[in-house]
UniProtKB/TrEMBL annotation:
Region described as Disordered: spans on this chain: 112-142
Similarity field: Belongs to the misato family.
Pfam families: Misat_Tub_SegII (PF10644), Tubulin_3 (PF14881)
GO biological process: mitochondrion organization
Compositionally biased intervals (Basic and acidic residues): 116-125
Protein name: MtDNA inheritance, partitioning of the mitochondrial organelle
One CC-aspect GO term: mitochondrion
Amino acid sequence: MREIVTLQLGHSASFVGTHLWNALDIADPNVVDSSVLIRSGFDADSGVATYAPRLVIVDLKGTCILGTLKRINQLYESEQDSQFVAWNGKVDVRKQEPVEKNEYLTYLDQDDQADHDDNHSDNHNVRLNPQQQKPPSNPPTAKQFSKVLDSVVHVWSDFNSMFYHPRSVLELPSYSHNDNVTPFAIFNQGSEIWDSDRDLQEDILDNRIRFFLEECDNPQGIQVLSDVSNGFSGFTASCLESLREDVGKLSITVFGVSDDCDGVINSVQNFNEALALANISKSASVYIPLQSRYQWTAALAVAIDTITLPMRLNKSSTSMGSFMAPLIATGPLGTLASSTPFPFDSNINAIKRMFAKTIGGGNFDDERVDWIHDDTFGDAFDLVFSRFIFNCWCTMYY
């Protein structure tokens, strides 16, 4: 095995991570070895297989435990329920109403319940014939869900499709998400939380990270997604300094996510990112800052998923150390650039005229543009404009 343990530190980092886990959930198993990132288990009593990422998520209070997060699967939920001990004393119950789930999460819950019912039937030797299993008459499509999520996603758990291990999710109680009175906004706030709380250090390093590492046969490294524009910059720097002492020479790849989705980068964010660059690179094997929540983090997730794919292939895979070697020849700092298909809307003629004026030449009478070629295959992009990949003009740097 060549397992990787993942850390997600911060809210925007967890947006990127959620996109990555959702993509891995539907990846082709013939190509991608999901066991590099996913742990599997089996309950002998129920006969239920369990799958969850080797993942530790740290976020602020009010971001992930909102009633919408599929924190743990049904097996773990039943185990947790059994931990409660009945007693005869007075109990004061204070209950918060669960957050209403969007259509996407509701659909996932229905699918999970169907899988649970199938497992229950299998365990009792009651399996329906394929003819008796009627599919939904009008199941929603991915495109329909995309339209829903564009307008209803507020936190990363609003579009999460993964189950998590009980040791994966941790909220920092000191600060709250979207708190404008006492925001978690400065590098020193994060480093102070880590340095002043030995119980927190022990919980994250020993109870969570070490737990996932010790169950690995041959771990190749740790990948970290971290916010670097707010207090998580300092939290991550201090956490990785302690983690490096624990794991020795084990490879640590860090992706620093800069949250400037509102278009404003102020001096505090620049200060945090500069300190993150100076401090995280001391503990990381390679540090790759990313700059560009539901839509813009998806672009970052695509880039990360693509460059780390060689570490997760079933055949001809590479190790994290080999992946980092060419990046760290002159130091532990890398850059990431990606080229993506350029989307066009229905106003295609106006866009054609824009390119004709900007670049010149070309035949715009039909959907074919002969003057744009793919450098790899030497052929013109054909017929559909949205297939074009402009390797130079539309390269996006993060």
